[in-house]
Specification:
heterodimer, A: about 425 residues, alpha+beta, 11 helices, about 45% helix, about 20% strand, B: about 240 residues, Rossmann fold, 2 domains, five-stranded parallel sheet, 7 strands, about 15% strand, Hydrogenase_lg_subunit (chain A), nickel cation binding (chain A), iron (chain A)
């Protein structure tokens, strides 16, 4: 017997799943990524490097800045360009804005209705309008930052190799500092709301993240190993447009929970206190605690955004781009997208054209772990819950990963 | 009280931005809900009501058989269909990838087999008649808000028919093309975005698609004079739409 889970709702992109039951037991779960393939790596081949970050941004609307930043970092590494701290801080600011926008979307509009028993945030708003509006306020603030750094709420082209098209003004930075502090209270409430969620899915045993909190030079695993993404094996599946990734033959988890477990010591003060408060739950590794981890990251992002704005205001903005000298080279950009590790890897020829391009997105890294989590939850609940509730429960497990299905469908090694 | 119009959002293959942008209306989204009842929108709600629709918003390209089936369903059920965003109106990036689909599948998945029924990516407008096309990667959310309000009031929305340049002039942005020799597709691109790229001091990349009647050959000549070779110009023009010079 096969139990079909129709197209997942309240997730980004199109996916479904199949639970295969034999002799009254769940034998296998297939996670089917049915979103059409988008072939972004092929699209970038032969392109001039300067245009590439704008194209790669279009992989995903929810985390377009993570894509353009990873792309720009890979290009700069290929040309051996170092950018000054000011540019790094502004990039970090943009990525934090994206965390706020993306986590708020996921937590308040997609995941929270499950906690209160509603089919969506619109209906949830009739009884819990306050919470929905708090979420929208955080999301709007995140988008304000994305527009400022990225040039537009979605798919801006302001992030460029060597710097930016336009730099923020003193007044804009003051606005950021002021508004972020007023929102921390809301984010703390989100953390206590999600702390009540019961654990579901698999207990992840291995987590992977970049070495810095939002970007870095290589990857680190929760067992302490440092490595490049090429250590991760990918394979195709006949039932999915997204490939699966394994590290040392095993599924692993990337995302907010992985970051807190590996890099919790890098958090800002209030976020760190929340982490300690909820450590007992988070450290079990249950993937559904990714929701709680994202809520703690909202607090982190709000605190850190104010810190960065203050630093930049104190030192003043120079607004100078680093000139780029074109030459043959190769570079990898590692960024933490809201959903986890994102990799962009290019080779560029002496004319500045891209000759090799490889992108692996967080949902592709998590693909095997999502499937495993569905399997574990299905085994646990099959026969115990009526079919409709069973299916809903499995959808909730998928949602906790905050999967970004449309990003995941073009992972390739060319 | 006036009966609300039934609205469905249908997402084909894309980045999710055009569906998401609707939620980015924030408080104005609640204004939309005064006139519309959303009966399906899989990114935002687990409710799925079948039945006739007043408006279908369709985002993304047709890139799989599943997309095509969903598009036909949306067309059959809706009185008024809006192709929303450049994927739906012009094909956008994924339709500009070169090579045949089986070759591409082989390069990415290591096999020419096509069990998931991928198709060549094409815009919605290639398959079904649409009542309104709103381009943009992403489209301007204020423009969508206006279009939805006009339809709710029984007014047929008018399509913008001027280039991005006009919006630069209205905003008093410095012309990056004339003043700084930065390649810009503003003169030949549909306006309506409010020129955010030029506001950042960068050239328009043409994400709203080609403006009919614009002097494309003349613009190509100017781009050449900035030192761009024909290959690069062609790629710039083909990124979001199939421009016909």
């Amino acid at each position: 017997m096969i139990i079909e889970i129709g197209e997942f709702t309240r997730v980004e992109g199109n996916g479904r799943a199949e639970v295969i039951v034999e002799d009254g037991e769940v034998r296998k779960v297939k996670l089917k990524i049915i979103e059409g393939p988008r072939f972004f790596e092929l699209l970038t081949l032969g392109r001039h490097f300067y245009d590439v970050p704008d194209l790669e941004a279009r992989i995903c609307a929810i985390c377009y800045l993570a894509h353009s930043t990873a792309s720009v970092m890979a290009i700069e590494r290929a040309f051996d360009v170092e950018v000054p701290e000011e540019i790094q801080l502004l990039r970090e600011l943009g990525l934090l804005g994206e965390f706020l926008e993306s986590h708020a979307l996921h937590l308040y509009l997609l995941a929270m209705p499950d906690l209160f028993g509603y089919p969506d945030a619109i209906r949830m708003a009739t009884r819990h309008g306050e919470l929905v509006r708090e979420g929208l306020a955080i999301k709007a603030f995140g988008n304000y930052i994305r527009e400022l750094i990225g040039g537009r709420e979605i798919h801006g082209i302001n992030v460029k190799p060597g710097g930016f098209g336009r730099y923020p003004s003193v007044r804009e930075l003051e606005t950021i500092e002021r508004r972020s502090e007023s929102l921390i209270r809301f984010a703390r409430r989100a953390a206590s709301t999600f702390a009540s969620q019961e654990p579901m899915g698999a207990k992840a045993e291995l987590f992977v993240a970049t070495d810095g909190y939002l970007f870095g030079d290589e990857l680190v695993a929760s067992d302490g190993e440092r490595f490049h993404y090429t250590e991760i094996e990918e394979h195709s599946l006949e039932y999915s447009f997204a490939k699966q990734s394994l590290y040392r033959g095993k599924p692993f988890f990337v995302g907010a929970l992985a970051r807190l477990i590996i890099k919790g010591d890098q958090l800002t003060p209030i976020a760190r206190k929340l982490l300690e408060e909820h450590w007992e739950k988070l450290s079990t590794g249950y993937v559904t605690y990714n929701n709680l981890a994202q809520a703690i990251e909202l607090v982190y992002a709000l605190e850190r955004v104010a810190e960065i704005a203050r630093t930049l205001l104190d030192r003043g903005i120079q607004g100078e781009n680093v000139p780029i000298e074109v030459r043959e080279g190769e570079g990898i950009g590692y960024v933490e997208a809201p959903r986890g590790v994102l990799v962009h890897h290019y080779r560029i020829d002496s004319g500045g054209r891209v000759t090799f391009s490889n992108i692996i997105t967080p949902t592709a890294f998590n693909h095997a772990m999502i499937e495993l989590s569905l399997f574990e939850e299905a085994k646990r609940r099959y026969g115990e819950l009526p079919e409709m509730e069973f299916v809903q429960r499995l959808e909730e497990v998928v949602r906790a990963f905050d999967p970004c299905i449309s990003c995941s469908v073009h992972v390739v090694r060319l | 009280m006036m009966e609300k119009l039934r609205l469905g959002v249908f997402e084909l293959t894309d980045c999710g931005g055009c569906a998401l942008n609707l939620l980015f209306l924030y408080e104005k989204f609640f204004d939309v809900l005064e006139f519309y009842e959303i009966t399906e929108f899989h990114m935002a709600t687990s409710i799925k009501e079948k039945g006739p629709l007043d408006i279908a918003l369709v985002t993304g390209t047709v890139s799989t058989q599943r997309d095509l089936d969903l598009l036909r369903e949306a067309r059959n059920r809706a009185k008024y269909l809006i192709a929303l965003g450049t994927c739906a109106t012009h094909g956008s990036l994924q339709a500009s990838v070169e090579g045949r689909i089986r070759d591409r599948l082989e390069r990415v998945y290591g096999t020419r087999a096509n069990p998931m029924k991928a198709l060549e990516s094409k815009p919605v407008t290639d398959y079904v008649p649409v009542d309104y096309a709103l381009p943009g990667c992403p489209y301007d959310k204020e423009e969508l808000f206006q279009v939805l309000m006009e339809i709710a009031k029984g007014v047929e929305p008018v399509r913008k028919d001027y280039p991005v340049c006009l919006e630069c002039k209205l905003n008093e942005y410095e012309c990056v093309f004339l003043k700084r020799n930065i390649p810009c597709l503003g003169p030949v691109t549909y306006g309506g975005c409010n020129a955010p790229c030029v506001r950042s001091g960068l050239g328009c990349i043409g994400c709203r698609g080609p403006l009919p009647g614009a002097n494309l050959p003349g613009h190509v000549e100017v781009l050449r004079s900035l030192g761009l070779d024909d290959e690069e110009i062609a790629r710039k023009l083909r990124t979001f739409a199939r421009w016909e010079p």
